[in-house]
Amino acid sequence: MTVKTDEKLRKGFKHHLRLTVQSVEDEKMRGQARCAVNIIPKITGEVDRFHRIPMELTFRSTGQRNEEKKTVFQGEFSGRGKLSEEGEDEIEFLFRGPDILEDSSMFGQRDRYFAGYRNKAADVFLGDNYYSLSRLTEQSLDGRGGEAGLVSGGFGLRGYYMKTRWLDPEKKETALHFDYLFRDRHRIGLNLFKKK
Hints:
The protein has strands at 13-22, 30-39, 55-63, 71-82, 90-97, 112-118, 122-131, 141-152, 155-164, 172-182, 186-195. By secondary structure, it is mainly β. The N and C termini lie far apart (65 Å).
């Protein structure tokens, strides 16, 4: 019997193994063996027991000294980091509001809300972003919506739906992109794009 141990373990532990063998013909014929092995990690030094994602909380206050003497406040909560020690899954988020750019001064910021997740095979993004499909269709249009992508083998699929926030009249876009990588260096793709 062989037992594999993860090479990236950061904590030591004791591996207990108990094996029981019994005869099919005679129930009294039975054997048992036990074994305990100390597993010592290759990585040494102090290791944090918790996995942490860096986050930041910010409060802003801006105002103008004119006849009104108006002061406004804005809060922001943001973070970005890996969900595991291997670093294959990553999240990112930003929640900032309310919009104080127009109400206070040029030092205010627009409200912005988004959350995203990505790994090697897929990604999902919801909220405010600069949405792009290609240089021929749309490139970096600021809006609010959702976007997702998937890669499997040589196939890739990506799409988004968004509405502009600052344009008048408002624009709505739906986009889909499909491509295939062959011979590890040639890529052929198809873009579908609808704009209102």
